[in-house]
Design goal:
The complex is a heterodimer of chains A (280) and B (144). The radius of gyration of chain A is 18 Å and the shape is globular. The relative contact order of chain A is 0.24. Chain A is mostly helical. Chain A has 11 helices and 2 strands, in the order H-H-H-H-H-H-E-E-H-H-H-H-H. By secondary structure, chain B is mainly α. The radius of gyration of chain B is 21 Å and the shape is elongated. In chain B, 31% of the residues are buried. Classes of the chains: A mainly alpha (280), B mainly alpha (144).
């Protein structure tokens, strides 16, 4: 395929991935790597490198839009970034020691898990009251966010150590697979720490860029980041994510998540089969 | 940033009423807004650089087939500063894209650095320390 056509197609695919990623808060990386390896036959290491770069762009580019909505919590984010950045360094260290077939299979499993998580999410209404960790106030994590009626809804967090440990795992996956691992970050905040869903997704978005930056240096040194591939991916995902952030408040999150669930489910199965057969 | 200050300072009636006058209080919300702008600016700069390099890249390689099927670690050469500067001086497209990528990676690092300053201004020792820890991890990972 001539490089101009290839680059254009990668750009369009990345745009779609970025749009979906921003709307669901799960990040573009989770569909980007399967897209690049399965559809465009890119080596998984190049795909992971390009994805990691796009993840930083997505997170940082959409931040200003998210901040305006007033959902994100900078303290929860910063506190948990200690865990995610340490995990990311560990993950990037592991990435060179794991065979690419195993990477593909692991990626597939992450996709299946994301699908399962987001399916569960769309069938669970938010719980109104829950116990809170006494450290929630001491660590100044308790805050409020704007509700639908123009008021402020107060919240506190629970199970901080479990959330912190899960965030280390999220960072490791991010460094290992070049994804933002937004699914696991949202899981740690929303399901474990009981942070309200919208606060979880927007704070997760904030954290993703910092987490990815921790493993980016290691990726650069290994040559995982190919400029010719990284440029359409980064610009495409960024454009898509900005569009997605623009529509975040208006979008029907439940319908979107259902669609996204089936997309990542299918990609996950394909990644595992390819990894198993050594086609990746 | 200057445009924002210009429009915010002379306005006599702020949209939201606060206990302290707007602009003098430095709180989390204000810090988040500044950080949001910082990130936006960084990404904009990085994207413009990557786009410029990308257009040049397409022009230089327009007749070549795309092949990213086989991995080689040659892009790692773009990381040596002397080599990168040498390639940049020759107007190499990949080197220009690489500069954009480096700018992009620097953006979240700058965000954490700003959070350290922001929390210090708020006199929040705990979070100054927390964000400093994140900054140290990031810098150690990048310049190991």
């Amino acid at each position: 395929m001539p490089i101009a056509l290839f680059t254009s197609l990668v750009f369009v695919g990345s745009l779609a991935a970025g749009l979906l990623g921003a709307l669901t808060g799960l990040g573009g990386g989770v569909v980007l790597v399967p897209l690049l390896t399965i559809v465009f036959h890119v080596d998984i290491r190049y795909a992971i490198g390009a994805s990691l770069i796009s993840v930083i762009a997505t997170s940082s580019g959409a931040a200003a839009a998210y901040v305006r909505e007033g959902f994100s919590n900078i303290r929860i984010g910063m506190f948990l970034e200690v865990a995610t950045t340490l995990g990311a360094v560990f993950g990037a260290f592991l990435a060179a020691r794991v065979p690419t077939r195993a990477l593909a299979i692991l990626f597939g499993l992450v996709l299946l898990y994301s699908a399962w998580l987001s399916w569960q999410q769309s069938h669970h209404p938010e719980t109104a009251t829950h116990p809170e960790n006494p450290w929630s106030n001491r660590l100044r994590m308790s805050s409020s966010y704007p509700d639908d009626n123009g008021g402020q809804r107060v919240y506190a967090v629970d199970r901080i150590p479990a959330g912190f440990a899960t965030m280390f795992g999220a960072g490791t996956l991010s460094g290992l697979l070049g994804i933002g691992s937004g699914a696991v970050k949202v899981l740690a905040m929303d399901r474990i720490m009981r942070v309200p869903f919208k606060v979880s997704t927007t704070t997760s978005n904030f954290m993703i860029g910092v987490t990815a930056a921790a493993s980016a240096g290691i990726y650069l040194k290994r040559g995982y980041i190919n400029p010719g591939l990284a440029f359409p991916v980064m610009l495409g995902v960024l454009a898509g994510s900005l569009l997605g952030a623009h529509f975040l408040v208006k979008a029907r999150v439940s319908l979107l998540r259902t669609i996204f669930t089936f997309v990542i489910l299918a990609l996950g199965v394909e990644m595992i089969i390819n990894g198993w057969l050594g086609r990746s | 940033m200057t445009k924002e200050q210009k429009t915010a300072a002379p306005s006599p009636q702020p949209k939201t009423l606060r206990s302290t006058p707007p602009g003098t209080r430095f709180d989390d919300r204000r810090m988040e807004i500044i950080i949001g702008r910082l990130l936006q600016t960084g990404v904009l700069l990085a994207s413009a650089t990557v786009l410029a390099g990308g257009v040049r890249f397409l022009f230089e390689h327009r007749n070549q087939p795309a092949n990213y099927r086989i991995f080689s670690s040659e892009s790692a050469n773009l990381l040596h500063p002397s080599r990168l500067i040498h390639l940049l001086s020759m107007g190499d497209a990949s080197a220009i894209i690489q500069v954009g990528i480096l700018l992009l990676i620097a953006t979240p690092v700058a965000r954490v650095a700003f959070a350290v300053i922001g929390f210090a201004i708020e006199r929040d020792r705990l979070y100054t320390f927390v964000s400093l820890a994140v900054l140290v991890i990031l810098i150690a990972a990048l310049f190991r």
